[in-house]
């Protein structure tokens, strides 16, 4: 990936495209505060948005974006986890299939948090889009509103090294 093709590296908004900033395609991630289950039930950890604008085809239509998040339980246990890797496929804006796609790699972070003396792993499940959790995010080209999905993760008791 040529970093000069992008703006917003190390921020919550990563943008690309050889156009003015207000019409670049971009990812925006907004984390959230929420109650999570510690028994493996997926919980929302943030909202993933793709502003999918019509842009000139970049020299590298496939690239990987990385996301790092901070997980906090209460006021004392905070841990930065990542990277979560998103494989982006920019499609030509012609023909029948103009949707861009985003694939999330499978990832598990061990011993992310301690609650009541017990450690828990964090499993990134994927995107909740159209009522289903999947690792594949479909992003309609030039939609009026951003294409949005919740990013879901589950927490399970740490079982020791695999």
Written description of the protein model:
- The protein has no helices and 12 strands.
- It has 162 residues and is mainly beta.
- It has one domain (3-157).
- Strands 1, 2, 3, 4, 8, 9, 10 and 12 form an 8-stranded antiparallel sheet that branches.
- The model has no long low-confidence stretch (mean pLDDT 88).
- It comes from Streptomyces pratisoli.
- This is Choice-of-anchor K domain-containing protein.
SSE inventory with pairings:
Elements lengths: L5 E2 L5 E4 L8 E7 L11 E9 L10 E12 L3 E13 L10 E5 L2 E9 L2 E12 L2 E3 L1 E4 L7 E11 L5
Antiparallel strand pairs: 1-2, 2-3, 3-4, 4-12, 5-6, 6-7, 7-11, 8-9, 9-10, 9-12
What's a quick, concise take on this entry?
It comes from Streptomyces pratisoli. The protein is an all-beta fold and 162 residues long.
Query: What portion of the residues fall into strands of 2 or more residues?
Result: over 45%
Distinct helical segment count: 0
- Overall spatial form: elongated
- Chain-averaged pLDDT: 88
Our measurement of the CA-to-CA distance between the termini, rounded to an integer number of angstroms, reads 32 Å
How would a textbook summarize the main sheet?
8 strands, antiparallel
Poorly predicted parts: none
H/E topology pattern? EEEEEEEEEEEE
How many structural domains are formed by the residues? 1
Query: How many beta-strand runs?
Result: 12
Proportion in helices: under 10%
Radius of gyration: 17 Å
Helix vs. strand class: mainly beta
Protein name: Choice-of-anchor K domain-containing protein
Organism: Streptomyces pratisoli
